[in-house]
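Problem 3 from the worked examples.
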Amino acid sequence: MAGTGTRTARERARDELTQEIKDVARRQLAEVGANGLSLRAVARELGMVSSALYRYFPSRDHLLTELIIDAYNAIGEVAEKAAAIDADPRQRWRHIWHAARTWAKAHPHEYALIYGSPIPGYQAPRDTVAPASRVALALVGVLDSAALRPAFEGPKPSAKLARQTEDLAARLEADLPAPALTRLLIAWAQLFGVISFELFGQFVGSVDPTDEFFAHTTQQMADFVGLR
């Protein structure tokens, strides 16, 4: 009798076919975008009848959720690896952002799936929350390990914003005070905004290629959040 840790041939076959379905779906994302993703088209490319595919993914939204989770986990993993290098916090910050950009450029359609426009009619379930938090937690870990000294004080968060960031800190289990977490959110929006502008062609005719601009912005945001 097989041990409890051994997968059966049927389980392995199911896992392999599930992966094939997701691989085909990712190719569809590149061709028609998330809005055009179709279970029927995926089944047709795999030579399956639609009813067979529905045993793996009951709806398009179930498939989208799996693709979203995979994408968040993929960029989260590269961020965590970058955060784990033996270096000072500022260097780790820089490595995380460059790793995230490298992943985004290698997987632009998956990046667009998680950081692009919302998909009409799709509501992400709570299953996506933990994977979506991985990059943020890697950055929080860097800031938690540093003696933060922001380049300038700037305005204090309003009472409402302070409550929002305190609630967020509690959900992330972060020890950062509200002003520090607010700065991190600003830097997060700034740097992912730069990545998005690059991928979606907004820098053509200005700072394209964007390597030097991204490196400069990453360092500016390190100053902004207080990494000296």
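Problem 4, a separate protein:
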Amino acid sequence: MAADAYATVPPSLRQRRRAAATQEIVDAAESYIAEHGPHALSLRAVARSLGMTVQGLYHYFPNRDALVTAVVAKAYEDLADAVTAAADSAADEPAGPRFVVAAESYRRWAITHVERFQLLYGAPLRHYEAPAEGPTTQAMRRIGEVFQRQMFAGFTTAQLAAADTRVLSPALRAHLEPMFPHGQETLPAPATALLLGAWGHLHGLVVLEAFGHTSFIGEHQAEIFHMAMRDLLEDIHRRIPSQPKEAPPAP
């Protein structure tokens, strides 16, 4: 059989036109959110901005939830792209500075795209529920994995399993254990607990600033955030032993 028989069939003209129209609708929804806020989003408003009828828009998105899911997933992907690019730009730096650089990129994206950030992390849209394990969930995980790689780069699974945390209940340990991958294994529960706590700290500071609650700090907000991320990472790394503790001998 000829080698080119396995070549991917290029999309048809109809498929390309549909993809272009779908992207135009998503772009219009993003523009509408940027101007009016996420809670004002409706199919009718987006269709009107494009000179379409609502019935015409239904050919691409069967309902409001489908459009919201596409817009949310794209926002997550754009945020993950920004964080990943920032971390990659600091590839020659030690892991610690890479984590701080990634965190600062997350902050910059949030305060630059406040309305899209609010769509992701503000008050939930009424009557909208993201599909389980759908594109929004997958895109959100990608962001978590970027921060995980930078936070725990250079540590072995055994070291992370021996991290100094409060005693985890068996139920919590079982819930946390399979949550994140770590190479060919899964991230140990103590490290997952540290990662989630760090995420809450990082994300909380960004939410406060993006939604205007720390405006009293003025132009010093970036410096405060940088200091907080540096101290956060140092504290976490102090909790991870340079060598994992040996297991006690069997009785």
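Solution to problem 4. Residues 246-251 have pLDDT under 50 and may be disordered. The CA atoms of residues 111 and 210 lie 5 Å apart.
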